Amino acid sequence: MSKRSKALKNAVTTAVGSVIAPRYPAAPTPHRVANAAFTRHAGSPQPPSTRSVGRVTDATTTSLPTSLGALRAHGHVQRGVKDEIRHNLLTALREGRDPWPGVLGFDDTVLPQLERALLAGHDVVMLGERGQGKTRLLRSLVGLLDEWTPVIAGAELGEHPYEPITPTSLRHAAELGDELPISWRHRSERYAEKLATPDTSVGDLVGDVDPIKVAEGRSLGDPETIHFGLVPRSHRGIVAINELPDLAERIQVSLLNVMEERDIQVRGYILRLPLDVLLVATANPEDYTNRGRIITPLKDRFGAEVRTHYPLELADETAVIVQEADLVATVPDHLLEVLARFTRYLRESTSIDQRSGVSARFSIAAAETVAASALRRSAVLGEQVPVARAVDLGTVIDVLRGKLEFESGEEGRELEVLEHLLRRATADTARANLAGIDLGPLVAAIDAGAAVITGDTVTATELLDALPAATVLAEVDARLEAESDGERAAAAELALEGLYLARRIAKDADDEGRTVYQA
Predict the structure, then answer these.
(1) How many CB atoms within 10 Å of residue 71?
(2) Sign of CA dihedral 306, 312, 316, 318
(3) DSSP notation for 267-296
(4) Are strands 191-195 and 50-51 parallel, antiparallel or unpaired?
């Protein structure tokens, strides 16, 4: 090897730094989780307009090839990113593993459509209202990539050692031959996400001239003066563009070549890069904000259009809340069911603008608000274990009504609509959970003068002490699996509220603002 080649090899190796990769080869091993499309992304903070999955920073590399010659001797086979996803998806399906951990309610609708699109090697646009898990689903695609993949050490675009595409990498490959150093990239580093904002430029997505490189003495005609954008930098990976219609139409045009010819064109440079990318995007099916549209030529280049939806079953709606909500207090299952029903009734209401939808984030925030109300009450009243009760449900309307968009004719009736739907959700939950239990003895005790006082200033112990001695309450506790004092108080409140909504007892407010259930 010439002195120049050795120097070049050392320079490239130094530029890479430490190589990261614990084992090779390895396919992803997603595990079976109840389907859900709304898992919160956990990772390092990213700039507001771009996000990527968390980075792998520590691993052993002792068993991995570190040069092109060693990689060939190891028997490595190169695959395009779409072939890679197809292979790993088929492997997961054949082995009975869930390729979509944490995705709820899409088993028989969205997921089969998306799987067919990926098996066909299509770029995909996901259409759906806000809060339907579109972005979460796209981030799950990372699990279908090989866990580790070789790249040319120091290459700007993460090119495969068998197929360099940039002038720099081509020169290094020609100079070094089998001594070309390689590093290993984790699949989490092969997913790039861009939020389409009005200020997004062609340079952000495709690339532009780098004035610093020009200032260093290179000519404007030198292709190495190009600063590559997000799409080429995602070579051999996945590019996700959120809210695609928000991109200006002239910016969308810059993606046409990427999606059809699989190359990019930067200004007047004669440079064609055979990019290997899977392009996925999200959009709203109805442009209710009038922000923009997907231009027809770009829409035509997407091989598949997959429609998402809100959970179709109540159980899925509740499971989304359980999975996503960060609760600071115990919220009994029956209260989560009330919130799930409330959200579903909002989506069915003609008073709510259904073009904007009612996001799953609404029910999640509602559960967190109810839990926070219980935590505040426990702090003020000195309760050791905060447990939410029916009395906390009213806080949802006060705090979250701004998350909903009403039809124009409902001005001034917003509170009335929300209170009605929340009462309906509570009544239906009480009826569904307490069906078959004869609450007559409790009604009789209250009719006999045993008024029950509850409210935000009443502890669980005080509420339980105020309850009449009715054996039916033990049946209610057993049905709702209430064991602690807080859970028993929550169960009793559901029974009392159910009786009130069924018009079997009355409910009033006393001078102190507490709720009184009485005859």
Answers:
(1) 21
(2) positive
(3) TT--------EEEEEEE-SS-TT------H
(4) antiparallel
3-state secondary structure of 39: coil
Chain center to CA of 80: 26
Closest to 483 (Cα-Cα) out of 517, 456, 460: 460
Asked if pLDDT for residue 177 goes beyond 50, the answer is yes
Q: Please give the DSSP secondary-structure letter assigned to residue 184.
A: E
pLDDT tens, position by position, 462-499? 999 999 888 899 999 999 999 999 999 999 999 999 99
Q: Which of 15, 11, 21, 7 is nearest to 66 (CA)?
A: 21
Cis before 468 (ω within 30):
no
CB 14 within 8 A of CB 181: no
Q: Say if residues 173 and 152 touch (Cβ distance below 8 Å).
A: yes
374 near 423, Cβ under 8 Å? no
Q: What is the mean pLDDT of residues 363-372?
A: 96
CA distances 339 to 311, 317, 347, 369, 452, Å, are: 14, 9, 13, 11, 24
Residues in the chain: 519
CA–CA separation, 149 vs 28, rounded Å? 12
For the segment 276-311, what is each residue's pLDDT rounded down to a tens digit? 999 999 998 765 344 578 889 999 999 999 999 999
From CA 24, how far away is CA 148, in angstroms rounded?
Answer: 7
How many whole angstroms separate alpha carbon 146 and alpha carbon 85?
Answer: 8
Cα distance between residue 308 and residue 134, in whole Å: 7
Please identify, in words, the CATH class of the domain defined by 18-59+79-146+185-307: alpha beta
- Tell me the three-class secondary structure of 186-231, residue by residue: EHHHHEEEEECCCCCCHHHHCEEECHHHHHCCCCCCCHHHEEECHH
Say how far apart CA 327 and CA 344 lie, in whole Å.
Answer: 21
Sequence spans of domains, the chain: 18-59+79-146+185-307, 314-518
Q: Which of 468, 513, 461 is nearest to 495 (CA)?
A: 468
What is the full DSSP assignment across 439-508? -HHHHHHHHTT--EEESTTS-HHHHHHHS---THHHHHHHHTT--SHHHHHHHHHHHHHHHHHTTSSEEE
Both structure tokens of 407: 């039809």
